[in-house]
Amino acid sequence: MSGASWLQLLAVAVLVVGGTRLLGPYLAAVFGDAEPVDGAGRAEGAPRRSSAPGDRLFAPLERAIYRLGGIDPDREQRWTSYALSLLAFSGASVLALYALLRLQAVLPLNPTDAPAVPAPLAFNTAVSFVTNTNWQNYGGELAMSHLTQMAGLAVQNVVSPVVGLCVAVVLIRSLARRRIELVGNFWVDLVRGTTRVFLPLAFVAALVLVSQGAIQNLHGFTTAHTVAGGTQLVPGGPVASQEAIKELGQNGGGFFNANSMHPFENPNPITNLLQVVTILLIPFALTYAYGRMVRDQKQCWVVFAAMALLLVGSIALATGMETRGNPELTARGAAQATQSGGNLEGKEVRFGAAGCGLYSAVTTGTSTGAVNCAHDSMTPLGGLAPLANMMLGEVSPGGTGSGLYGMLVFVLLSVFIAGLMVGRTPEYLGKKVQAAEMKLVVLYLVVVPATVLSFAAASVVLPSARSSMLNTGPHGLTEVLYGFTSAGNNNGSAFGGLSGNTDWYNTTLGLSMLVGRFLLIVPVLAIAGSLVRKQRVPATSGTFPTGTPLFAGLLTGVVLIVVGLTYFPVLSLGPVVEHLGL
Amino acid sequence: MRRQLLPALRTLAVLTVLCGLLYPLAVTAAAQVAFPGQANGSLVHDASGRVVGSRLLGQRFDGDEWFHGRPSAAGDGYDGTASSPSNLGPTSPELLDAVAERVAAYREENGLADDAAVPVDAVTASGSDLDPQISVANARLQAPRVAAARGLAEPQVLALVDQHTVGRRLGFLGEPGVDVLALNRALVAVP
User: Fold this and answer.
1) Contact between B20 and A242 using a beta-carbon 8 Å cutoff
2) How far apart are CA A265 and CA A261, in angstroms?
3) Strands B118-119 and A334-335: what pairing?
4) How far is the C-alpha of A443 from the C-alpha of A428, rounded, in Å?
5) Distant-in-sequence, close-in-space partners of B96: CB < 8 Å, separation ≥ 6
6) Nearest to residue A408, comparing CAs of A175, A211, A237?
7) Contacts of A509 (CB under 8 A, 6+ apart)
8) Rounded to the nearest 5 degrees, what angle is found at the Cα of A21, between the Cα atoms of A406 and A29?
9) How many A-B residue pairs are in contact by the CB < 8 A criterion?
10) Average pLDDT of every residue of chain A
11) Among residues A199, A101, B18, which one has the least CA distance to residue B10?
12) What is the mean pLDDT of residues B28-48?
């Protein structure tokens, strides 16, 4: 890594830590309780919400939304009805988006005459955007109308991360509250996350992007008569508004097929930095809000440190491998050591190999999946970094909410392992971690790898599925593995060589996304439902302290070991073998 | 479940209006007022007002009298409706053969020795296939050819290359590059 790329990384670190300190307390105020909640000895009724900055501005808007939605904002739910509300909302979202995709040809705001989306692709796309995955088996320029981009995809880009945020907030409340059944009101959390967190931030970020050259209009294609005497169609569309939310909500679905490689989505290195920071902002800020809400800031920094450690490691691996270049290109006379050097296939000159390394690690350490370079064309070990990031279960720092609840599941596992070592009942923040929670933790950890590996194995055996690979040999295996890993962990980035728009992949990738979203959310909500009822027992000399650097190290180790054991065999058949063959 | 479904549909409808229409339209309105040039694609016009392209999108240039952008497989090259990377893996024979071919062609076009190292950006495709830039080394190697084809002095062309080189932003962000469209337009403007 060069001096400039270290400085770039330092700038990201400063902006993210600063953003965490600014946004974290705000998030805690938006979702926290006014005072500690202890269910025993208090009258029934919902705990009082803390007051938040901007109440005067947002409260009237939210009251109007509650009225139109038929919601009683003063009633809280147990975890079961919270989960039902969440599933009902997500189900309605899938159906509405599916209908929009099927009908876009006859609906207005379609200046490029995009045809109706075929059924299997519409299923895949609807599921993809509702699960916050944004896997795209289509090219946005020609396949989607402006109406679909705005009223369909962009809506899910806002609300799907908020759904993840809701689940994390419930898990936090379950650790903060005691001896009570109520975990919050899904509709209220959904609306407040949308109006107070995502829309204001996205509006500002979108305008900054436009100022740098991202487009924001409602045109179709403009015909340009080029300097050399040809013609070129210059695309139009509401790009910046989608771009901003694409990063903020770790969605990653690009307006254009080329995603953040496209100059109209990501015009220059400043927007590249801005995108990296907006991707990391909310997941990291949420750790601070977590510390605030459980009234123990040390817990925040432990989680923050484990996330940051994993992220920086993967950035260093990807950047190092990509700037070092591809020896096969050198052998054919391409100079990779000079400026704009490195493995530049699938990369833009303005970002360079270092910009690709940074972005590819950040976009997969979070559940974003936007790309500013072609991951399929990265060097074998450079491409291993994003793949491994996703396999970790998207916890470094993961998606909005999903990163934090994923990491807290690993925390429970670490506490349990530590408890086994010292021979005590494990506890976390004074809450006893017992068989009921551990069963759910194991379910959480097993379900995605089982789905990913089964579908990937089936795909390399079925001849029809195998023909979708663009590259052969170990790289082809990595393409398939990357696809299911990305879908199962709701990332959405791709080794783009895999032609996913077939019935087999549209269906299996769609199912992987559903499993990776809702079969994780329900166990997490169940864990929360169990924890929230418990009393907080005071710490004793036998309690394993969880607010220490030692625990951050243990946590990082547990994440790496659990994942390493699961995926190591298949990784060694894919990227590792390919690297050794270079 | 029915008790949940009605609020789900109603809330979704309200949020669709808020996030899907009001939000993008508000951004569009603000962007069109504050940054109309950028919001509409940073379009470049010729003297008669006709659109010749976007400052941010690369164009196809063939022939000795132009600086060439990076190899592009979008349509016939730099097609604005088909942004896409090649997605070829680092060991793909297809990629490596293409690179070997491009290296040979580049050496021949620019009169380089048979074992001269060629800047990597000149023989690899970008991710968007619309990359507006080439590396400084690449532009400087093309300058003698362009100068000869246009009957210009080489230092004059190299000076134009320097003028259209964009450095690292803030001194450390990204990589320096040369804007090919602007450079070629400047060549046309040379009397």
Assistant:
1) no
2) 7
3) parallel
4) 19
5) A328, A329, A332
6) A175
7) A124, A128, A135, A137, A455, A483, A484, A487, A500
8) 75
9) 414
10) 94
11) B18
12) 96
A329 touches chain B (CB under 8 A): yes
Residue B76 — pLDDT band, cuts 50, 70, 90? confident
Alpha carbon separation from A510 to A139, A246, A376 (Å, rounded): 17, 20, 21
Domain boundaries, chain B: 2-37, 54-189
With contact defined as beta carbons under 8 Å apart, do A154 and A242 qualify? Answer: yes
Residue A325: per-residue pLDDT: 94
Average pLDDT, chain B: 94
B90 and A582 within 8 Å at the Cβ level: the answer is yes
CB contact under 8 A, B175 and A333: no
Q: Give A43's contacts (C-beta < 8 A, 6+ positions apart).
A: none
Beta-strand pair A427-428/A431-432: antiparallel
Residue A25 pLDDT more than 70? Answer: yes
Predicted local distance difference test score (pLDDT) of residue A42: 58
Give first-to-last CA distance, chain B, whole Å: 76
Partners of A49 in the β-ladder: A33
CB atoms closer than 10 angstroms to residue B47? 5
Chain A residues with CB under 8 Å of B190 CB are: none
Q: What is the ipTM of this complex?
A: 0.96
DSSP letter at A373 equals B
The encoded tokens of residue A542 equal 């036998």
**If you ran DSSP here, which 8-state letter would residue A117 be given?**
P
Q: Which residue reads 């599925």 in tokens?
A: A465
Min Cα separation B54/chain A (Å): 7
**Nearest in space to B11 (alpha carbons), one of A87, A67, A152:** A67
β-pairing, B165-166 vs B43-45, is: unpaired
Cβ partners under 8 Å of residue A550, min gap 6: none
Q: Does A577 touch chain B (CB under 8 A)?
A: no
Q: Would the CB atoms of A340 and B120 count as touching at under 8 Å?
A: yes
Cβ-contact A341, A335 below 8 angstroms: yes
Burial A234-254 (b: 16+ CB within 10 A, else e): bbbbbbbbbbbbbbbbbbbbb
Separation CA A177–CA A488 (nearest Å):
32
pLDDT tens-digit readout, A545-576:
999 999 999 999 999 998 878 999 999 999 99
Considering only the beta carbons, identify the residue of B9, B41, B50 that sits closest to A264: B41
Q: Is B20 close to A88, i.e. CB distance below 8 A?
A: no
Does B39 sit within 8 Å of A217, measured CB to CB?
yes
Q: Where are the alpha helices (DSSP H) in A227-325?
A: 239-248, 269-293, 297-324
Is residue A491 within 8 A of residue A364, CB to CB? The reply is yes
B66:A190 CB<8 A: no
Q: Which residues of chain B neighbour A155 with C-beta distances below 8 Å?
A: 15-16, 19-20
CA distance B66 to B77: 15
- Model confidence pLDDT, tens digit, residues A144-185: 998 998 899 989 999 999 999 999 999 999 999 999 999 999
Q: Give the helix, strand, coil percentages of chain B, each rounded to 5.
A: 50, 10, 40
Q: What angle do CA A407, A378, A210 make, to 5 degrees?
A: 75
Would you state the structure tokens that stand for residue A155, as one six-digit string?
């809506």
Residue A225 has pLDDT above 70, yes or no: yes
CB contacts, 8 Å: A238 with chain B: 24, 27-28
Q: Which residue type, as a one-letter code, is found at position A428?
A: Y
Please tell me which residue of chain A has the smallest CA distance to B101. A332
Residue type for position A26: Y
Cβ-based contacts of A355 with chain B (< 8 Å) = 174-175
Work out the minimum CA distance from B79 to partner chain A, whole angstroms: 6
Predicted confidence at residue A73, as pLDDT, reads 93
Q: Would you state the structure tokens that stand for residue A225, as one six-digit string?
A: 């008569």
